[in-house]
Known about the structure:
Blueprint: H1 15-34, H2 41-51, H3 58-65, H4 69-81, E1 85-89, E2 97-101, H5 103-123, H6 129-143
Antiparallel strand pairs: 1-2
Amino acid sequence: MDHYTPETFHVTQSVGFAINKARNVLITEMDAALKDLDITSQQMGILLSLRRGIAATPFELSKLLGVDTGLMTRMLDKLETKGLLERSRSIEDRRVVNLKLTKAGEDVAEHLPQIVPVVLNRRLKKFTKTEFEELRRLLNKFLDD
């Protein structure tokens, strides 16, 4: 089913516009909340993914977080420069780079569960539990291929 046609499409009325605007608002608010930790919301995703063992290589992180490998490399460079993670080559396959949080990276990641829910809950305060669950369900449906 087509939901848009060239005649009915209006950029500010589109789902893409709303999702992008919501993303931008959330990033702005999250970045402000993370300022004292000297990381961005995108870097937060990397730190939490590494800390929870969801991903361990740049490729896995790129796929999980939906960013291209070039951007991922630049973000990892910044985190490494800040002393929050370290890279090492895999012994089994020298092409694979493994990532590990440093002690400083662990310390920063440890603070995130106290910060991130506050930002998200503030943005979701007008949602009922049912609406929140429906929003998550619909976003996941939107993301499914």
